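Quick one: structure for this chain?
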Amino acid sequence: MKAKRTLLLSLALCCILVLGMLPVAVSAATSDPNPQQFTFDVDKIVTKGGDAAPGEETFTFELEYGTVGENEQQSVVFTPDDSVTLADCGIAFTNDTITTDGEGEHTFTLGGTVDLSMVSIVNHWQAIEDNSGEKKLCISLRLTEKDDGKAGWTYSDAERYLTLTVTGNEISAAVSILGNDVFDNDFENVYAAYSFTVKKTDADGNPLAGAVFALNGTESTAVQSFEATSGTDGIAVFNVPEGNYTLSEKTAPEGYVKSDETYTLAVRSDIDHTAMDWGGEPGVYFFDENEPDYSNYKYIRYQQVTFVNEAVVVSVPTVEFTVNKTDADGNPLAGATFSLTGTGNSVGNDFEAVSGNDGIAVFEVPEGFYTLSEKTAPEGYVKSDEAYGIAIWNGVVHFYDEAAETDDDRYSEYEQVTFVNNAAKPAETPPESSDSPQTGSNGMMYLWIALLLVSGLSAAGITVYSRKKNHSAK
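Got it. Here's what it folds into:
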């Protein structure tokens, strides 16, 4: 009896010892409320597949729990288990995105955290022992790149496997190919898109910025849409993948009327792409879906198209009033030019009107403040110096006196004004200068006096000569 009691106590003690050891076998980590970080690297390779250079792009990676085993052919396989989440294993994949910029190969660091208190066989970790006999817990997760379906991108279909190993409070991470220890963390993406430009101008050929163009995929290919906006040079740039599209203007720049032009385009990325019955060079083409395949006009190489916008014609309400032009006797005069010069908030709004045979000049102008004056008078008349302040609002024309102190004195209802021109006086002939040579009777008188003097002098000379001769003869 005593022997039986001793045996039972021994069995109970063994059970207690086994149960006491179970936590050690289940978990190699101590409870820690603060999750521990882990990191690992991936190599991203971006290749250009079309003529458009890849720009900045973001890629997202995913980790997936599953079991690793062998199939009938004794090959190592991974079997995903959707019923187990990363959180069930105490894992958070917090840093799961990278951003590339252009072509080339770059290394990026991903990572997350592990709640060491959850690292146990119960939570899907596996217990292992290394060659030195040290106990560890590890887990293998499938690492893949998420296909976000972004236009022009081919996503990597590579499967890599992340192994997390916990030793005490230390975590190590390694990426490899399933079934061996070969390190491989490459993920390659191809950007296959083609570039073309659209131009936007006004009716005079000047470039316009701010026009939005739409490129909408047709039903014959995957329906996808793109937009591009013209810059200060009027150019909008599209980078798009293979497909058939309709190009149109979505919105015109402010102050312009949207163009109704449309074009059907085809983008082809692969000379061996038979799904679209294509055997030509990759690129962008004008496309006529109704043309037979053998037609030379089904595909025509794209050349930049120009969408022209007409300026919006803004209808501004105008008001009409008249001015009268007469001479001093009240007769109407034609050909007088009147000026209506904008003042105040109407500066720059200047108008002119010319009087007709009835002496009437007609102005048709928008509301605002103006000065009315005569610019040029009809030929043969003196321009009037009269001037009037004019104010127009609510379709009514008023005289306007800016110097008046009250509105009652400042504004009065307009009545047709008459500008009177006096005839110009004929020009007077200027008097002759005293230095000018004399002509007419005075000139003849001086001539006769000169002749008499010459004659007298001649006679005197002859007389003196005769006397001298007679005296010599004696």
